[in-house]
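Lecture notes, unit on protein representations.

Consider one protein chain, 272 amino acids long.
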Amino acid sequence: MPRKSADVQWPELFRSDSAISEAVGRAVEQGTLRPLGLGLYTTCQDEPEEALLTRHRWRAIGLLAPGAIVSYRTGLNMAPEPDGTVFLVGRARYERDLPGLRIRVTKGPGPMPGDYDMLPGLKVASRPRALLEALKPSRARAGIARGVRANEAERILESAFQTGGEQAVNRFRDEARALAPALGADRELAVIDKIASALLGSRHGPVTAPSAVARLAGKAYDVARESQFQTLFATLRAHEPAQYAAPDQGTSFATSAFFDAYFSNFIECTEF
């Protein structure tokens, strides 16, 4: 005897198939499930579709593009484009559109060394692979491009240097070199090699990343700390200190300057 749809414990977001389609249909009629389109259903009745799909973005991508690999610009940034577009590599080229989510799958190789699982059925390309694929020629559609330019590639490699030094950049380049033949990305590998050599100072070439320019000039600085100080500076500027009216006479006025000076030095760890 088939189970009633009310007895089924549905996930908050799932994709229907032939095995459960009848139960799903009954649950929709009973108001237990809500269809989102493209075979997706949810138990959430009140949340707007776009907000729900944003909250379950990667789960939805895994359901709508099973076996695909997050790559290109999306694989490098691990975030969608402003219009919700995400770029993947799969066995065939196809597109899927829902509110706030635009899935774009390009035909390409399957999993390769360095790719990793994000969710069941959804992998993410290694950064060397994602950059090799993102450097391939491509056309922007509606102002959204899946690829990156050389200056963006420099930023990515400079970020690797900031987190892991020369070894991280060399490791990135070595992994890209190993992947390039299977991806047909010899030209893209040459771009990475040129940028890496320039960042490491082993080959003359222009660099544009401020931290790289400073480092090669012998004035290296901590990029992460610089960003934190900029955030602190902006926050302090947005909150002016409270003003108070100092007394113009009496003992408190005579000693206030002393306390101001004392605690100012105390903050700087000066001991008296």
